[in-house]
């Protein structure tokens, strides 16, 4: 199990990763990233792989997180088309996984969304099987605290079970982020144990929870005004070690279930953010603006690194 972070590739960020001690990266594959799946050439792929290999950095996954069930059919179709290109890119780069959302049609229930999910992700899973890669569905609900709606159905173990019953392919799995489970009141350690064989990738992100504020605001958070950042008034994302997640228990649980992937920090910590969060309009902007900031990444590395189990190559010979 290696320690890394989610970012857009550049030689500078690769140098930072090496200097800090990171040995893993989940790389952005959004159209505006260095790995635009429509245009990146084989020559450029070789250059990126050679650079990271020379630094001992493994690419754990490619990341692309749109709403495949968007109400606008043309928009949804473009997301679906591009995701297929991202899966093909993972195959070209010999990367084992692509991580993404399911999405959610506005105004529909989770049950309403299961039929289009099943049809679409059955096809995605078949293509992933043919390519020899896996799909990791992230569990962020993408909730909007003002209108109380979400943009991703895959946020709870109940729903994961229904997803895997509908699409049993082993190519379909989870990218778990415990911070989302924590604010929803879901036991993230139990979730790891219950779905260990489906965990494709793991995001290391922590969360602050202010019980006093929740007691006043309720689960949905502020009804008035702008809370700023990514929270809803009583919670906010933090770098690992700066919130309520018990990382020793997380790493123990991952080890117990035989997880063979990496632990990659996803920086969304507004306390340590230098970027103007008000300019972030979507998922692609988050990794573009925050995935290269050193402060939260270094602090997260310093906290998690002493807990990471040794790789077999780190062990001394007998």
Automatic annotation (TrEMBL):
Keyword ATP-binding annotated: no
InterPro entries (UniProt xref): IolE/XylAMocC-like (IPR050312), Xyl_isomerase-like_sf (IPR036237), Xyl_isomerase-like_TIM-brl (IPR013022)
Keywords: Isomerase
GO molecular function: isomerase activity
Domain of life: Bacteria
SUPFAM superfamilies from the UniProt entry: Xylose isomerase-like (SSF51658)
Xylose isomerase-like TIM barrel domain: residues covered: 15-273
Keyword Isomerase: yes
Signal sequence range: none
Descriptive protein name: Sugar phosphate isomerase/epimerase
Protein source organism: Mycobacterium yunnanensis
